[in-house]
């Protein structure tokens, strides 16, 4: 009996030793495997079928792979979202619960100006209408919007604030509607100016026709004068329709250009010769400022001459007798916007153009009050702009009231 108990105790001791060794071995393998999991950056670095932990190691590797796949998908989605936000023309800002900017896209910094990350919403927005809309959103937890016009920058902003339910902050959207508002103004002025330009000759034709009907036909000399006046008004309407058709053709891309190398001064002298008599009748001097160096451009000679004639015609209209109009051409210096192009200039000593009008003189039918008395359709400068741009150049003006104007345009050199 005693020998049986002794054997049983020995077997128990051996079992405990085996179990203890087995536990120690498994614990050591688990610790080693845990360290490898922590150090592994991808599933290929994880051991497979760890002795004694085959199911566990395979399950961990599967979970690791699934986690990496989801993380990669999340990173790809984040990259796409970041790319979209970076390319958006609308400004996007995200503010935390304390009113600090925690995200800002490039458009927002361009619209609002300066580096905005980490600054307060009040510092970023600066305008009290926008700040009040953000505060209403934070207090009510509802979307708020506001609009503000910034006269100093001639800018019009639309602002929308949306509560961020996930982070207890705010999502802010800033839209620059300046261009849209400017286009609306252009459209409204176009309709208004077109109505004005049509109403004047049509009213004159109606009055002349009624005068003829009321007895002027019986007075041949008077009838002749009225008919001549009617012919003048019809010619003005015809010119307007022709210029509208030409402008439409140019804007629709149906303008065919015959591009050939031609000397810039040849174009200047040709336009000067065409307008010499008109300038002389107005008591003005018209000359070409000649330089020793010859410049050639690749252009449609007839079209560029049309641009020059139009600019000279405007200069003649708004320059008082005794003034002077000077035509010139030179190469744009290196480092400038139009590097390598030839820059044409038409300078006058006229009445000048106000700052408010200067930015809009190339719009269709746009006329300042000063220019209405001078006649014309108001389409010439718009046509000139389209012709220059179709050559790959640009046109602009510099002027101060009472100190004359300078109209520049560039054409790529031949």
Number of domains: 4
Which topology of the largest domain does CATH recognise?
Heat Shock Protein 90
Strand content: 15-25%
CATH class term of the largest domain: Alpha Beta
Structural class: alpha+beta
The number of helical runs is 12
Mean of the pLDDT scores?
79
CATH architecture heading of the largest domain: 2-Layer Sandwich
Number of E-type strands: 12
Separation, N- and C-terminal Cα atoms:
121 Å
Helices and strands, in order, run as HHEEHHHEEEHHEHEEHEEHHHEE
Largest sheet: 5 strands, antiparallel
Which homologous superfamily in CATH is the superfamily of the largest domain? Histidine kinase-like ATPase, C-terminal domain
Helix content: 40-55%
The 3D shape can be described as elongated
Q: Taking Cα atoms only, what radius of gyration do you get, to the nearest Å?
A: 40 Å
Spans of at least 5 consecutive residues whose pLDDT stays below 50 are 370-374
Structural overview:
The protein is α+β, with helices and mostly antiparallel strands and 414 residues long. The chain folds into 4 domains: 32-87; 94-176, PAS domain (Beta-Lactamase); 182-251, Signal transduction histidine kinase, dimerisation/phosphotransfer (DHp) domain (Helix Hairpins), CATH 1.10.287.130; 260-412, Histidine kinase-like ATPase, C-terminal domain (Heat Shock Protein 90), CATH 3.30.565.10. 53% of the residues lie in helices and 18% in strands. The chain has 12 helices and 12 strands. It has a 5-stranded antiparallel beta sheet, sandwiched between helices. It has a 5-stranded mixed beta sheet with strand order 7-9-10-12-11. Helix 8 runs parallel beside helix 9. The termini are far apart.
